[in-house]
UniProtKB/TrEMBL annotation:
Gene: MGAT4C
Species of the source: Pogona vitticeps (central bearded dragon)
Protein name as it appears in the record: Alpha-1,3-mannosyl-glycoprotein 4-beta-N-acetylglucosaminyltransferase C isoform X2
Pathway: Protein modification; protein glycosylation
Limits of the MGAT4 conserved region domain: 46-310
Lineage, highest ranks first: Eukaryota, Metazoa, Chordata, Craniata, Vertebrata
Keywords: Glycosyltransferase, Transferase
Domain MGAT4 A/B/C C-terminal: start-end pairs: 325-451
């Protein structure tokens, strides 16, 4: 169910996107604009809409737009991650310079080698653009020279009609124009960034970053290897921290441009993800990006929304090496064992466990562990914790009816108040660990939620 945005950019981004055919500029004709407008008049749940999207599903070509490089030059080599953000002149406040500063300051020297930041100044006021480019070039000159920062602009002539659009959701005309232009801005930014890197993450122009966010993103991507995903989310706010494969950017750019006047961009993104067969949100905690702006880019309205899952300095994503997970507890509905061993905001939920019940992790290969943390229960179900339990590790593997199992276990610690954390495990366990087991030591009438199992290895793991 779609929820209406609170205060303009609590759901909406303040940024914009598209890719480039910089070296083959072709002006969009009036006929092209008319076709885009006609296509966008169809509701997104209509049969024609679905058919049109299927026609685009295999489309990988860029939108024919000639961009202006306001700072920086074309990349000489492909990077791992492009960070895209778009900015317009605000009536109150300007956070763009602080956002760029946060991106670079929160990245290590090694991380900086793998990123490129693309700023799309999506403003038709040339005086404002010139002033902003001057500020960016002076403050971040070494990043521009190093090829880590580019500032681009899309000429107004490439934009479709922005006046007299449909007033969906009873939005006032200026609101419709704002959100419709925003969709086009995003489309042009995405289009430009499609070939710059392997992955792309969208930020807004009023964002603060967590320390070493790139390393955390890389770890998540590695952990999802072999699984299908369209969008990974590293913030629950608006269009902040949404990650894509770069090869999906042309389709997403065309999608936003085709339906630019239909609805806000974050609603369109939900449709895009669903149409590419990712039904559920895949969001990671803690959040890596925080909204810091006080005033919206739309009319300068107040926007105090914050992501309460954001952690700026303490972010430490676990390794959680590949493993087989199983339990003999009675699982409730689809809250299966795998959901506890993931940084996604999900959990395992079992019906009242008995003494001797267990939750087992069998690693694909023996590992050395540095730290283990297990959290049970949730804020709204604080009694569904493990009241009496222990954590054990095992070494010897045998094959049984349920697959690979460990024959001997060593107890590392007991749960207190439903939680357990053990450090310096490699100094307490002299063998490479093949299994880890959460053991219920006393029956309880309450159900059990295992909210998260986090494992940090003391040596790199091949995932």
């Amino acid at each position: 169910m779609l929820l209406r945005c609170i205060e303009d950019d609590t759901c909406l981004g303040d940024t914009y996107e598209t890719h480039h055919s910089i070296f083959h500029p072709t002006k969009i004709t009036d006929g092209d604009k008319q076709l885009i407008r006609e296509a966008a008049t169809h509701q997104l749940n209509s049969e024609r809409y679905v058919h049109t999207f299927k026609d685009l599903s295999n489309f990988s070509g860029s939108i024919n737009v000639s961009y202006r490089y306001l700072a920086g030059t074309p990349l000489l080599r492909k990077r791992y991650l492009t960070i895209g953000l778009s900015s317009v002149k605000r009536r109150k406040g300007n956070y763009l310079l602080e956002t760029i500063k946060s991106i670079f300051e929160q990245s290590s020297y090694e991380e900086l080698k793998e990123i490129v930041v693309v700023v799309h100044l999506a403003e038709f006021d040339s005086v404002w653009c010139d002033g902003m480019v001057q500020d960016i070039s002076q403050k971040f000159a070494h990043h521009v020279i190093a090829g880590r920062l580019m500032v681009i602009h899309t000429p107004e002539e490439y934009y479709p009609l922005l006046d007299g659009l449909k007033r969906n959701y009873n939005d006032p005309e200026d609101r419709v124009k704002f959100r419709s232009k925003q969709n086009v801005d995003y489309a042009f930014l995405l289009n430009f960034c499609a070939n710059l890197s392997d992955y792309y993450v969208m930020l807004e122009d009023d964002v603060r970053c967590a320390k070493n966010f790139l390393t955390a993103i890389k770890k998540v991507i590695t952990s999802r290897d072999g699984t299908y995903w369209v969008t990974l989310e590293f913030s629950k706010l608006g269009y902040i921290g949404k990650l894509y494969h770069s090869h999906d950017l042309p389709r997403l750019a065309h999608f936003l441009l085709m339906f630019y006047q239909e609805m806000p961009c974050d609603w369109l993104l939900i449709h895009f993800r669903g149409l590419l067969a990712q039904k559920d949100v895949i969001r990671f905690k803690p959040s890596l990006f925080q909204h810091m702006g006080y005033y919206s880019s739309y009319k300068g309205a107040e926007n105090k929304l914050k992501d309460d899952d954001f952690e700026e300095d303490s972010f430490d994503l676990p390794d959680n090496p590949p493993a087989i997970l199983h339990t003999n507890m009675n699982v409730f509905e689809n809250y299966e064992a795998s959901k506890a061993y993931s940084s996604v905001d999900e959990y395992f939920w079992g019906k009242a466990p008995s003494a001797g019940d267990f939750y087992m992790i069998v690693f694909e290969k023996p590992i050395k562990i540095n730290r283990i943390k297990v959290v049970t229960g949730t804020e709204d179900r604080q009694n569904d914790v493990l009241h009496h339990g222990a954590l054990e590790v095992g070494e010897k593997i045998v094959w049984g009816k349920k697959g690979r199992q460990c024959t001997t276990f060593l107890q590392l610690g007991e749960f207190k108040n439903g939680n357990l954390e053990i450090t310096n495990v490699e100094h307490k366990v002299l063998f490479d660990i093949n299994c880890m087991r959460i053991l219920v030591t006393k029956s309880q009438k309450e159900w059990l939620i295992i909210r998260s199992i986090s494992i940090w290895t003391s040596q790199p793991t091949n995932q």
